[in-house]
Amino acid sequence: MSVNTIELSSNDSEDSLRCDNYFDLLKTEANIVGEDLQGHVDSEDSVSPSASGTSKSSQSQDGKKTTRRKRASSTESEVKKRTTAAERQAQKKKLAEERKTAKDANKIYKPGECMKHMTIEMHPVLLECWYCADIAREAGASGVKVRPSSAICDPALVLWTRSVPPTLTKNRGMVELTPSKVQCERGLYVRRLEDAAELIAEHSLSQTIQLASQLAACDLTLVLYGVKDYFKTSGRKTANSCNKLITEIDLEKAITDLVVSADCDTVVVNTPNELALTVLHFTKAVAELPHKKAKRDVDEQADFYMRGDNKKCVAVDKHGNGLSRVWQQMIAVLPMASLESSRALCAQYPSPLTMYEALLTPGGVGAVADVGVARAAVPGARARRIGPEFARKLELLFTATDGNTLID
Known about the structure:
This protein is α/β, with parallel strands linked by helices. The protein is 57% helix and 13% strand. Strands 2-1-3-6-7-8 form a six-stranded mixed beta sheet, sandwiched between helices. A two-stranded antiparallel ribbon has the order 4-5. The protein has a two-stranded antiparallel sheet with strand order 9-10.
């Protein structure tokens, strides 16, 4: 193998050196670029895990924040629900208390319950009198309390007080409770005729009653005890029988003058039991007065007396027993109707709806007209029909759309 030797000139050697230097420079730049690219790739590889970790941590933090927000919103909604439920419960409790208070307030004036809230106040002198011995017993049997009161201005007075629940009122910028007892606007003035005879003889009974009425601040009714015994005559003429201060005519004149001048009526009793029952009757009347007055005020607002239109009424209980009798009575009050015809129609049509539906069908009026009515309650009696005229009236009553239609 031969070796070829090439000789280069100086110029050629310079060119070759230049080429070698150029290629060396290109290799160096290529190595540098490669190193930079490799470093960039390595840096990307080294940064990407941390970046992915950061993104994952940010996502987890966002998820935690979202969960916290959801929990907070759910907690707020639960608190709102609990608050709303508590408010509803408090409102229901308040309404129940108001209803109970109104019910208790109505019991004070309701007949049958009002007597338990009444108190008879009498002066101890009058209460210890022998003719008033039955008052406490009769009052206790009716649930009324009897209380002696020495503050009464006249020993002959009998007054009433009603126990009421105290309420808060505003008076001159101050909140205070109302009294638990209210005095009634009616009273009794109980006197024996023997004691009142002197006043009658002096014509001062009317002035005495008026003064007592002013001091007691209520209207009074005079109760005279022992009128029969005072005017009772025996077969013997004694000094006492001739020493009567007044006569029966004088008593009648005094009672008449009392009604006219003092607007005070008089009740005459002769036994302790009559006196006790009189006091009890007045107690019941005074106790039921607010309830009766409220009913009267409602009745006066109507154009007619509603409580007078309760004749021939039919009682219907909560289970509906009695509705058939109401339906029968509705037909019986119509013109040309009788008890037998109403019974026959109710047996064929048990309710107003069934009759209405029957009259709307074609031929319904004829079917109603052909309903048979027994003439008597005996077996084999000949029956008659309702008739077309009464059926036509029933059709007008049930199907007319004009309220001014007359049923002749």
